[in-house]
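Archive entry: two folds, one per protein. Generate the first.
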Amino acid sequence: MPLVFLKLGGSLITDKSRPYTPRPEQLDDVAAQIAAARRERPDLRLVLGHGSGSFGHAAAQQYHFQRGAETTADWHGFAEVWYHAATLNHLVIEALHRAGLPVIALPPIASVSTHEEKIFIWDLYYLRAALEAGLIPVIYGDVVFDQALGGVILSTEALFAYLARALHPERILLAGQEDGVWENFPQRTRLIQEITPQTFAICREHAGSAAEPDVTGGMKTKVEHMLALVQEVPGLQVVIFSGQTPGNVQRALLGATPGSVIHA
């Protein structure tokens, strides 16, 4: 049975220009598309992830927390980022549940440990069990405890990268606001439809970035990480596309490749 990872970007499900502001209609629309794709392709195994958007990122900036926790103030910031990321996760789970999807939230802070921001412990039993039962595990960008730094923020892409090496999905779908990776950001007139190790050297200076601050890195960082991953996981394809375009999420889940495709 095919396995697909789908990330709902923070820019898609929240208003990143306004702290702690969800986009409930967008959430409901995406949830409905996922449900429709599952009805059309009932054998599809799916791991969902989502960014923290204007919840976790805003809290990280407000409380000056990103990398490392030592002082009481640092740990207070750590807890605030956790709270706001968990709040958004609850809203996402509610939307998916309303659409009739059998989702199970698996908060990274409860099962993932890092060392200098690299995952070295993740008990995947529960995630594997959820997939085996036909459920949809949902993970998200979160704070986690780090053996060297105390506490750090771990992005959904970092979680997906670790999972991809363990579970070998066919595709990773990254749904955001942008139509894909632009050759000329912010003008947005030339979309890069295909990115490989050979072509990335040419387009790397034009990969662009997010319109709003993102403490886990912008578009160029995302492309670099995904390009490294497709070279490690045989046959993996990554698609960066707009989840705002009507029907795009459903089409991507059913095998279409809107936006920019990254492969080895």
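Generate the second and append.
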Amino acid sequence: MDHHPSRPTPIPDAPPQGGAMAEADDRTADVRGTNWQGRRLGAVDLRGVKLCRADVRGADLREARLEGADLALARYDGFTRWPPGFAYARSGAVGPGAKLGGAFLNTTDLRGMDLRGAFMLGVYLSGADCRGALMQDMGFANGDLRRSRFCGALLTGSRFAYAQLEGCDFRAADLRGADFSAVESIAGAVFTGALGWEGWRDELLSRPCQELDCWNRLARCTTRESLEAIDAHGNTPGGPHG
């Protein structure tokens, strides 16, 4: 009687509807950028697999083997289910509670991401797209946020001490309770339609002229103009988003 060795559970490929299957015991498997949103992966062996930028939001990974997997910039959310004891917050993945202090997230697409409770001190976020992201009570101290886009983001209670905010786009962001004291620079940053202006507008308007009169090519106005245009409703006279 022939005895065939049991075969490992294959790594699901993307898209979910089918396609080639990589063997799970291939430690060089590369599934970077794979979309596994909402999927249950079962007892798949992902040890040492490259999962950079994979999307595992809502995925069930409880039975997966993830030791040594490269999860840099993989996306997860509060509905992702991890293997018991797996230190996902320190894996390099991005999501609620992630430990991202000093991480290089330059130009990363974080639109609509839930980053509540993430640790962001000293983060490199230059050019990142954070539109609509949930980032309340975030500490961005000493971070490089230059040219990042925070349009419509939830940033209530966030702290920006010693952060570099040159060219940042805060249009229509919720900045109620935000702390901009001791910020490094706001040259070219725009705040059109932002909420919570009562707590920080006057402070920002006292910044040096070379910062306030810097042009933002995306918003087509200076930092000073974006701040002075905010009316009593937190909007510009021309409309809610400038």
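Annotation attached to the second fold: The helical segments are 201-205, 209-212, 223-228. Residues 46 and 66 are 5 Å apart (CA to CA).
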